[in-house]
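Below is how a single chain appears once it has passed through the pipeline. First comes the sequence as given, then the structure the pipeline wrote out for it. We keep one example in the README because the format questions we get most often are answered faster by looking than by reading.
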Amino acid sequence: MRWSILSLPGLLGLFLLSGSAASAPGASHAAIGAQAAPPGTGLVLADTSACAKPRLAALPRLKESHARYHIQRRYIDLDGSGTCVLMEFWVERLSGSDSPGMRTLGHRFLRATGKKWVAFETALQLFPYLLRAPGGGQAYLVVAPDYDMDSISAGGVQPEVYARGGWQTGEPGWVDRYVLLPAGRERGHILRALAGQLAQRTAPEKQTHGERKRIRALLFAAAEADKTGAAAPLP
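Resulting structure:
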C-alpha cells in the first residue's frame, strides 16, 4: 500500500428561533443572518470547480429511473492539485421502495489515471464546500446537508469539516482512496464561517427553504462543537 501526500495541514439539527421570530418570516431571516455573521476567521468561500478537466472522453451520464434519481455530477478539485476529479451523487430507493425511510444516497467517484477513468473512494457524503484562508493558506472541505436534493437522505447528512490529506493507493485491482483529515479544535469556527458565507451569498428573500435549513444546521453543529471545546481560534 502506497501513500501520496499532496497536502497535510496542521452545525446537526435545527437552529431554534424565538417564538416571535419563528412566526415572522422577515424576522427569521434577520435572525439567521445575524447568527451566521462571519466570525472573523478570514476564511472565504472558494470555487471547488476551479480545476482542469482531464483530457479524457467524458463518461456517459447515469440514467435516471424510479430507483435512482436526482443524479448530480460535478468536476471538483478534491486534492488541491488543480486537476479535477469527477463526483456524482444521487438519491436511491432501496429495493425500489417508495417508503421515505428506504431512500439513501448513492455515489460514483472517478479520477484520471493514465489514459482512463478509475474509481476511488473518499469520506465525503455530498459535494463539499471549499473554505480557504486568504493568500493561498489553509483550505477546508466542508460537507453540509442538502434539503433541496432530498429531505431524507441528503438532508440527513451531518455537517463535517476536513482538511486535505493524501491518496492511498494499493495493488492493481484495489480501489484507491483519498484520505481526508478531520478538523480539530477549529471545527466550530469553520462551520460558522461557512454559514456566514452562505447567508451572505443569497439575499434572504431569495433563499430557498432548504438553504435556510442548511444554514441553521451549520450553526447548530458549530454551537455543539463549541460545547465540546472546539472553540479555539484558528492557527
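The chain has a mean pLDDT of 83.

See the next section for the split statistics.
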